[in-house]
Give the backbone structure.
Amino acid sequence: QVQLVESGGGLVQPGGSLRLSCATSGFTFSSYAMRWYRQAPGKERELVATVTTTGGSTNYADYVKGQFTISRDNAKNTVYLQMNSLKPEDTAVYYCNALFFLDHQGPGYWGQGTQVTVSS
């Protein structure tokens, strides 16, 4: 049974920080690139960050470069998203996604998301 469970979301003031976690089970974590997406109400889901299977390479959306950091711990089957200098426009549901490293078409596995709200 594949499971991806996000945690760490909540309410934070502008300029604050949060660290999201995605704990996984039921698949070979080290064979999957891990990604974080986010979706605001009424908006399309957008890719925020990606980390390769070993953590050797990362990619970020331009609007979070220097602000967010993705990392993974293959011994714990967990991927993280450190979010600093948060802005109201970062408010969204954040989703964890696992994509097999040879899969260029499939949706991969998805968690249920965790809400991040940035507000005064």
Observations:
- The chain has no helices and eleven strands.
- The mean pLDDT is 96.
- Residues 88 and 118 are 5 Å apart (CA to CA).
